[in-house]
Amino acid sequence: MTLLDGKKTAAEIKEEIALEVRELKDRGNKTPHLAAIIVGNNGASITYVNAKVKACERVGFESTLIRLPENTSEEDLLNEIAILNIDKDIDGFIVQLPLPKHIDEQKILMAVDPNKDVDGFHPTNVGKMALNLPTFISATPFGILELLERYQVETSGKHVVVLGRSHIVGSPMSILLSQKRKVGNATVTMCHSRTKNLKEITLQADIVIAAIGIPEFLKADMVKDNVTVIDVGITRLADPSKKNGYRLVGDVAFNEVAQKSDFITPVPGGVGPMTIAMLLKNTLLACQRNN
Ligand code: GUN
Predict the structure, then answer these.
(1) Does the beta carbon of 119 sit less than 6 angstroms from any atom of ligand 1?
(2) Are 56 and 34 in contact (CB under 8 A)?
């Protein structure tokens, strides 16, 4: 069993980005600048956004964090986006999801200038991704592709089973892995809450990508020997023995599934750190494209 070490791989990618930033600066070019908007007080979201901002500092990017109160109106949020869209110093920005219920998420994502949409959530960029055209690939699927590539996990001709059909992970992951690309050419089955005979399908998988948000859903009896398992789940479960009061649990029953796996990602330290590294990569790309 080989652990797909996202923490180590993300650190390597960030080192590569930091080197590029130093070279950009040495040549007198613009320093990449990422902005993030967060609305409300969701604990997990605040942790993620803070981690993104900190990662910017580490690689030498500029960063701007815009914190708005929970009761921010849709109109005010659209105004903030309009300001970032025309701010020449901002190369890319993200609006952290989920948003409060009174705000129409799709309307917000569509307001972001596709050229600054480093999350790759704008329909224009999702469309380009689906057509295998150059664009910003969303950080989580992008991170999974990168992890598979760097560990030389063969995907061509393999049966990939994706659990979950979210716009952020399941759907783009299914599309990308079926495409003609370096990490791709797979036969993909996408499963979701209405899928029948799920275990029958996962037992046929060479690679399982679990992105359903149900702690320890994928058990050892659901996978075949020598499987590769990518665990996208990160649920916070209450744990009084921990200093912060919770522990992170993935969608995979790690200890039992690892025994049957050739490759497997841990939680934490697997896909999570990769998403931040790939967001930085997209921001660097935006800076290079837009200047
Ligand atoms: N919430 C969970 N994942 C993401 C992400 O990749 N980007 C944004 N903006 N919000 C998220």
Answers:
(1) yes
(2) yes
Range of the domain at 248: 139-272
Is 119 marked active-site? yes
**Residues lower than pLDDT 70 in the chain:** none
109 lies in the same domain as 179 = no
Mutate to test the pocket of ligand 1, among 34, 37, 97, 283 (most ligand atoms within 8 A of CB): 97
Q: What is the pLDDT of residues 134-145, one digit of tens each?
A: 999 999 999 999
Same-domain status, 152 and 104: no
* 26: exposed, middle or buried (Cβ count in 10 Å: 0-12, 13-18, 19+): exposed
Beta bridge partners of 37: 66, 95
CA–CA separation, 164 vs 118, rounded Å?
23
Say if strands 2-3 and 207-210 run parallel, antiparallel, or are unpaired: unpaired
Q: Do 238 and 163 fall within a single domain?
A: yes
How high is the pLDDT of residue 163? 98
